[in-house]
Every structure is written in structure tokens, then in C-alpha cells.
Amino acid sequence: MSTPKTLLIVYHSMTGGTRQMVEAAHAGASPDTGIEVRLLQAAQASAPDVLAADGYIFGTPENLASMSGQLKDFFDRSYYGALDQINGRPYATLICAGSDGQNAARQIERIATGWRLRRVAEPLIVCTHAQTPEAILAPKQIGDDDLARCRTLGEAMAAGLALGVF
């Protein structure tokens, strides 16, 4: 009997938006898929977690037009420990943005390209339109439609891993 595939979801969240998004993806990936799903905050994740997984979802808020510092720290700590050992594995990205999230998506894509990962979905970006200091720092509430898109992404990642599509 083969061991179940593992989907690793690594994220950082300050105001709750990204956390809600990755929890929705986790919920979509978990029920009856036969896939083990690990949800780790970026500060707790490391290269052994990356090596033990068969696919990845990376979640981050957009901070100053960038991925969060904690997700970048995860990549900094894990990059060389996983380099050339995870080639071809699938990944997707969730971004909670105040404006457009595109630069954060590009940054993650560049790192994933270096790891030779295979993007299996366009970055899923939820824009909160938070533009003032008060709005940026306020707790976020992600809408049901956006959470449904995150759940669907989790379902698709789990199904792809379970079926051997990627």
C-alpha cells in the first residue's frame, strides 16, 4: 500500500485575511480526499516540511507591494535545504492584497521557479482595498465568494495529488 500524498500549506497572516483564505483551502483539501494536509504558519515551517510534501500552497498578505517578511523568511530558511530535491512538484498561491497583489505573486513565482516547482493554478488574489493605515491594520473579513474560491483551490490541489495528475 502506498503512503498518502501530502499537501503542505505554508502561510503568514497579520490581520486574519490570509489565515481565513488558507483555512478555506485546507477545508477544501481535507474531506475524504485521502490526502494528508498540513497547515503551518511560516515561522514554524522549514526545509524538512517542504521535502516531506508532494505539493504546496503558499499564502501571504501583500505587505508594501511584497510577500510578507515571515513568508520570505520561510523561503530563506528552506530554499537551499530543498533545492534540486522537489523539482516538478505542484504549487499554488493565495494572496490577501490591499491593492493588486501582483508583485507578491511574482516574488513567490520567482522562488518557485528556482525550486523548479510547477504552478498548477493562477495566483488567487483577494483584494480588500485597504489603503489607509487604519484599514490596513484592521482585522479582515474575507467574503463568502472569495472563501469558496479558496476552498475550490484546495479541493483541486488535493484531487490532483490523489489522482496523480500532478
Please provide a brief summary of the model:
By secondary structure, the protein is α/β, with parallel strands linked by helices. The chain is 43% helix and 20% strand. It has helices at 17-29, 47-52, 69-82, 102-114, 133-137, 144-163, and strands at residues 6-11, 36-41, 55-61, 90-97, 118-119, 124-127.
Write up this protein:
Strands 1, 2, 3, 4, 5 and 6 form a six-stranded parallel β-sheet that branches. The protein has 166 residues and is of the alpha/beta class. The protein is built from six helices and six strands. Helix content is 43%, strand content 20%. The two termini are 19 Å apart. It has a single domain, classed as Flavodoxin domain (Rossmann fold). Helix 1 (17-29) packs across helix 6 (144-163). The protein has helices at 17-29, 47-52, 69-82, 102-114, 133-137, 144-163, and strands at residues 6-11, 36-41, 55-61, 90-97, 118-119, 124-127. Helix 4 (102-114) links the parallel strand 4 and strand 5 (118-119). The chain is globular.
